[in-house]
Write a structure and sequence with these properties.
The protein has about 160 residues and is an alpha/beta fold. Helix content is about 40%, strand content about 10%. The chain has a 4-stranded parallel beta sheet, sandwiched between helices. The longest helix has 17 residues. The radius of gyration is 14 Å and the shape is globular.
Length: about 160
């Protein structure tokens, strides 16, 4: 079963939105039950809810992240996933340095579409900032879907 872990800083905005969006894309492709899709945060405090704006923006898209609770990345967690997509270069740096045995699984989210930039954190922004972040995540997931398949297939 292919597996993907989305990682941001606190696991309250970008990564839970990416998780929900990718699950929706898999459901559209009728692959939803064939994948393991989760999220975590490099500096997450365990048990925090997704931000109110993240929950609202996902609701607007017909997606439910109300039950989401944040969790930190651990070595044990990383070991369970074929692909770890991080939102920022510093996330990749921290994980690759802290867990070198899993460094090859860590990829920058924007690399899905051939870029090397960070995905901006909407945490201090307006609802429109969150909507723009969700739009960007979804576009990259859809455009980068074949790359995700390629990266996860290499491990299966």
């Amino acid at each position: 079963m292919p597996s993907i872990l989305f990682v941001c800083s606190a696991n309250q905005c970008r990564s839970p939105m990416a998780e929900a969006l990718f699950k929706s894309i898999l459901h559209e492709a009728e692959w939803g039950d064939d994948w393991r899709v989760e999220s975590a945060g490099v500096w997450a405090s365990p048990g925090e809810r997704a931000t109110p704006s993240a929950r609202r923006v996902m609701r607007e898209r017909g997606l439910d992240i109300e039950d989401h609770r944040s969790r930190p990345v651990t070595e044990g967690l990383l070991s369970q996933f074929d692909l770890v997509l991080v939102m920022e270069g510093r996330h990749a740096e921290v994980l690759q340095n802290q867990y070198p045995a899993y460094a090859d699984r860590v990829k920058l989210f924007s690399a899905l579409v051939g870029r090397t930039d960070d995905i901006d954190d909407p945490v201090t922004g307006t609802l429109d900032t969150y909507r723009a972040a969700a739009d960007e995540l979804e576009v990259m997931l859809r455009r980068g879907f074949d790359r995700i398949l390629e990266w996860t297939a290499a491990r299966n």
